[in-house]
Amino acid sequence: MKRRRLIFAAFSVVALASSFVVSAQPSPEEKQLRDRLLAYQQAWNRHDLAAWSSFLSDDIWFTQALDFYGRQKGRESAETLFKSNFADSELTQDVKKVRMMPDGTATVAMREVVAHLPKTDGKYKAVFESEPVIGRWRKDAGVWKMFFFTSHKGWALDELKKDGVE
Predict the structure, then answer these.
(1) H or E stretch including 53?
(2) Domain boundaries, the chain
């Protein structure tokens, strides 16, 4: 009798693990978004402002710091920030979690590294690591675009909690 229970328990664990693996697979929408995230990073690293900003919605709120007054809203503001702070940098974003939201948007939690050029003797001039950072994406005319971003740790943590991303 004990052996049957043990065998049944083993099969139950295997079945549960199998269902977890299947459910852990990203949906087609999430896969498409993850592909866009990679392309976003590649556009940044080519230092191509037009290509990079094509990933942003017109009404993006793109900030590194807590922006109570919305001064960093709009694609033009993000482009100015890119030109002044990021045009001479390389970006690495490690996606930690993607949450597809009920309204069709997606919240992305990431670890981000911005390394400023030039690189001398294998070392960058300056390196800034941020975790978590948050990006919110939505489809505009069928294409994923970022409409919110912050690397401010406290704000990112609050927003991730609000979106149920933990």
Answers:
(1) helix 49-53
(2) 27-162
Backbone phi, then psi, for 46, in 5-degree steps? Answer: -85, -10
Q: What is the pLDDT along the chain (166 residues), one digit of tens a residue?
A: 555 444 444 444 444 444 334 457 889 999 999 999 999 999 999 999 999 999 999 999 999 999 999 999 999 999 999 999 898 999 999 999 999 999 999 999 999 999 999 999 999 999 999 999 999 999 999 999 999 999 999 999 999 999 999 7
CB of 110 within 8 A of CB of 93? yes
pTM of the complete model: 0.82
Of 93, 103, 100, 112, whose CA–CA distance to 153 is shortest? Answer: 112
Class of domain 27-162: alpha beta
